[in-house]
Amino acid sequence: MSKRRTVGLIVMAIGGCLIYYGLLEYRVGSGASPDPADVELADLEAGKPLPDNHIRIGLHHCLYKSSVIEYEYDEDDGKAMKPSSPVKWIWSPLISDRHPYMQKLRKLVAKHGSIKKIPRNADWPVVKDFVVLLKSEAYDTVREIPDGRKLYKSVSGLVINRIESLGDDEKRLIRRRFPEIDFDKILIVEHGRKPSSPAVSVAFIAGGTLLVLMPVAFFVRRLVGRPPAAGSPGPVQPAPDAQAEDGPVKA
Q1: Residue 14 near residue 212 (C-beta atoms within 8 A)
Q2: Helices 198-224, 3-30: crossing angle, 10 deg rounding
Q3: Taking the CA of residue 71 as centre, how many other CA atoms within 13 Å lie in the half-sphere pointing to its CB?
Q4: φ and ψ at 45, to 5 degrees?
Q5: For 82, what's the count of Cα atoms within 13 Å in the CB-facing half-sphere?
Q6: Positive or negative CA dihedral for 81, 82, 83, 85?
Q7: Domain extents for the chain?
Q8: Tens-digit pLDDT profile for residues 107-160
């Protein structure tokens, strides 16, 4: 394969990726409002339908202890997670203050006086089900991720599993931590993500289309303008008229 053809195929591949991304962003933008819709996590846990793909969740608990962390590692040092390991993504369950986990935890606190006084061998609550899984890239390294459980007033983002499919590697990673998770029922919210405007989506699609068509036009032009192969017969000229060749016939 010639170098020009290889470059052309690479350009077409990049154009195809831009078209796909533009179509995806257009789908996201058409199914979400520019401003996030306010929702209460307790309502989602009770089965209330989602008002929009772009949402802002109110008061909630983020369970960092139960999080799934996707991190980078050095092959030479092994695959063990270290405090200095760079974090790609972290998936954390979010629960409301009315969640059974919090109700059971409050009973233990009331019984022992404070959460620090609860003995380790106590019947600690376990998160068996949740509605929202927050996908975030807010932390650069593992050591920056908070411990245990944190209470936040709100968090906003896009519900991505309603508009795009998770990769097989992502699903496999999450399922290791939550074997019984149902991706059709869980809302995976990408922290801080906003829908793109239609103009941006169209720009990606137009740019990708241009990159795809440029190599095609170049190859077609070269094919049409290619000279005939060596040894091929040229155009046939008509034989000259005998009278014109020999001159007029005299009587």
Answers
A1: no
A2: 160
A3: 23
A4: -65, -30
A5: 9
A6: negative
A7: 1-31+195-221, 33-194
A8: 999 999 998 899 989 999 888 889 999 999 999 999 999 988 999 999 999 998
